[in-house]
Specification:
about 240 residues, alpha+beta, Immunoglobulin-like, four-stranded antiparallel sheet, three-stranded antiparallel sheet, 2 helices, about 20% strand, rod-shaped
Length: about 240
């Protein structure tokens, strides 16, 4: 009894399955055909059966990571045109022409002449200033006279220096320098001292006046290397006798 009931249940279940396959398979009784769902090119089943045509899910495509391009040193962006005027480059370091004459190079390797055996220069002292002091001879003379008129010259140095040399020149006129010379005597100098026209020189003795007048003496020292020249004056009046 129990086996009979179990067999009936199995038959009923098998019949239900066959009916479902028939409906899903479009009326065919071919179980194998019912189990084979027909797929469209898009992948969908014709008359899909939930038992034999599994739902296909859209494959998920994982995007492949695209490598970020490395930035180039040179920008590839095209610059937009601008209306700014293009600057003309100014030439640099261009020398301006000048009218200056070209300098002639100085020749080199010029032999240098060196003086040898040069004597050491000796410092020459400055010449000393001198003076001549005049003294009259006989002042009590009248013209015409047989006695001479005369002067003596005392030569000296204002600054000490070498002993003076040179000459003393005695010149006599009756009147001013426009009158002719009536007496001259040149005396050689040999150091500091007094020189007299009566006893010294190349024309000693003085002058004997024959007419009255104002007789003027000019005595000049010539000077030398170490003594400066100098001049002195003296005047003597001679009345008529």
């Amino acid at each position: 009894m129990r086996h009979t009931w179990l067999a009936m249940v199995v038959c009923m279940a098998l019949g239900a399955v066959m009916f479902a396959l028939y409906v899903d398979g479009g009326g065919t009784t071919d179980v194998s055909a019912a189990r084979k769902p027909t797929a469209t090119p898009g992948g969908d089943c014709i008359r899909p059966n939930k038992h034999f045509c599994p739902r296909t899910s859209t494959p998920t495509v994982t995007p492949t990571e695209t490598a970020t391009p490395t930035a180039s040193a040179t920008s590839t962006d095209t610059p937009e045109p601008t209306n700014a005027p293009t600057e003309t480059p100014v030439p640099t370091d261009t020398p301006e022409p000048t009218n200056a004459p070209t300098e002639t190079p100085v020749p080199t390797d010029t032999p240098t002449v060196t003086a040898t055996n040069t004597a050491t220069a000796t410092r020459t002292p400055l010449p000393a200033r001198t003076f001549v002091g005049l003294s009259y001879g006989d002042t009590a003379i009248c013209a015409p006279s047989s006695s001479p008129i005369s002067v003596s010259a005392a030569l000296g140095q204002i600054e000490p220096s070498n002993s003076p040399t040179g000459t003393l020149t005695f010149v006599l006129r009756n009147g001013d320098s426009s009158q002719p010379v009536i007496y001259t005597n040149v005396v050689n100098v040999n150091g500091i001292g007094t020189y007299d026209v009566l006893t010294d020189g190349d024309n000693p003795g003085g002058y004997r006046p024959q007419v009255s007048g104002q007789y003027n003496w000019v005595v000049t020292y010539s000077g030398d290397t170490y003594n400066l020249p100098t001049t002195s004056y003296a005047s003597q009046g001679v009345p008529d006798c």
